[in-house]
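Renewal narrative, Specific Aim 1. Our central claim is that a sequence can be written position by position from structural information alone. The example that follows is taken directly from our test logs and has not been curated for this report. It begins with the structure tokens describing the chain, in the order in which they were read.
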């Protein structure tokens, strides 16, 4: 039985990954400071898997607490989700973002080194590619200057991890997520945006639920088939499963370098209008929306080339956009 530390394990992607880890027989320890999650997610996970993960309310910025945790617990691998992720907020509060996302990463890696914990999975993002020169985006596409402090924490985070793997026996995989959406089929866990959602799908489901009056579609003159921006929307359960295969690769010493990166997307690009159409089709709900100006900092199009992830990890997204949107809607109805 392997003991896996999941930081941010009560968050959106973290909670789905904890469920998949437990389903695969891993023993899960969660560190989460509840800064963007609620404690009842722990019970929801338990009711899905019938096994309660061990939970620690630790702030990873608390170096002493992190030291103590590693002293007291035998850990075989770490999946690190805990981080702040609001792009706009990061522009307002860059130092908080650097302290939270970079500080905690450094403490975690230091304690992993000190305690011979050698397997590390990092939540990275396709945001590191910016507007890529070519589509679909391969892992070899160049990393662009970050558009926001949030994006920069992902870029710098990868560099810190890479440098650490060079001088230690830590092996790491950074998973560059495209746009995670959807919810668990039980509708017990899902995305819980605080306040007005910034991301498309929670805004769509809240509009359909009558919480928001109308969805603004940001930009209708992009050079895409229908003028709206294109993204690669991946079901969070498929994404969660990618973490299990990446972790297993490290645990079985199947990695080909001490630091590897993989794109985790479906390989399909969908426009905002296609998302709306798909949502209306699967839910039978008419969505109130209007076309407005572009949102600052948005790119035209991003979707993944998943060949390397398919071949190296033996992983492929299985769930469709329709399935993801339906699961997001079912989840919304429980809120
Ligand atoms: C955003 C972040 C990205 C981050 C990711 C995490 C920005 C600029 N980028 O990506 O750094 O890694 O979330 O999930 O914030 N849209 C609308 N109306 C809305 C909301 C969104 O039309 O009310 C459009 C956007 O313009 C975009 C698409 O929907 O074309 C997806 O938006 P979103 O869900 O915010 O994701 P990204 O912008 O791709």
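The sequence written for that structure reads:
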């Amino acid at each position: 039985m392997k003991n896996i530390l999941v930081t941010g394990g009560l968050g959106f992607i973290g909670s789905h990954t904890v469920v998949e880890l437990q389903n695969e027989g891993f023993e899960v320890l969660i560190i989460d400071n509840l800064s963007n999650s609620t404690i009842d997610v722990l019970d929801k996970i338990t009711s899905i898997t019938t096994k309660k993960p061990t939970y620690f309310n630790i702030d990873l910025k608390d170096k002493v607490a992190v030291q103590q945790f590693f002293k007291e617990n035998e850990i075989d691998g770490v999946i690190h989700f805990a981080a702040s992720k609001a792009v706009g907020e990061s522009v307002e509060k860059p130092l908080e973002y650097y302290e939270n996302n970079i500080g905690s990463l450094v403490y975690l890696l230091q304690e992993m080194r000190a305690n011979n914990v050698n397997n590390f999975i990092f939540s990275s993002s396709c945001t590191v590619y910016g507007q890529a020169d070519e589509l679909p985006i391969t892992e070899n596409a160049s990393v662009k200057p970050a558009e926001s402090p949030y994006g920069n924490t992902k870029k710098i985070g990868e560099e810190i991890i890479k440098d650490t793997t060079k001088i230690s026996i830590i092996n790491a995989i950074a998973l560059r997520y495209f746009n995670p959406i959807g919810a668990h089929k039980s509708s017990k866990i899902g995305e819980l945006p605080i306040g007005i959602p910034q991301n498309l799908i929670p805004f769509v489901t809240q509009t359909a639920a009558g919480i928001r009056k109308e969805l603004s579609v940001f930009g209708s003159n992009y050079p895409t088939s229908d003028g709206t921006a294109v993204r690669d929307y991946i079901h969070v359960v498929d994404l969660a499963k990618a973490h299990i295969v990446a972790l297993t690769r490290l645990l079985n010493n199947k990695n080909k370098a001490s630091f590897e990166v993989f794109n985790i997307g479906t390989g399909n690009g969908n426009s905002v209008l296609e998302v709306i159409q798909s949502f209306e089709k699967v839910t039978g709900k008419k969505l109130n929306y209007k076309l407005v100006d572009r949102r600052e900092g948005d790119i035209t199009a991003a979707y993944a080339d998943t060949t390397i992830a398919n071949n190296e990890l033996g992983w492929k997204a299985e769930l469709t956009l329709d399935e993801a949107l339906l699961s997001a809607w079912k989840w919304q109805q429980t809120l």
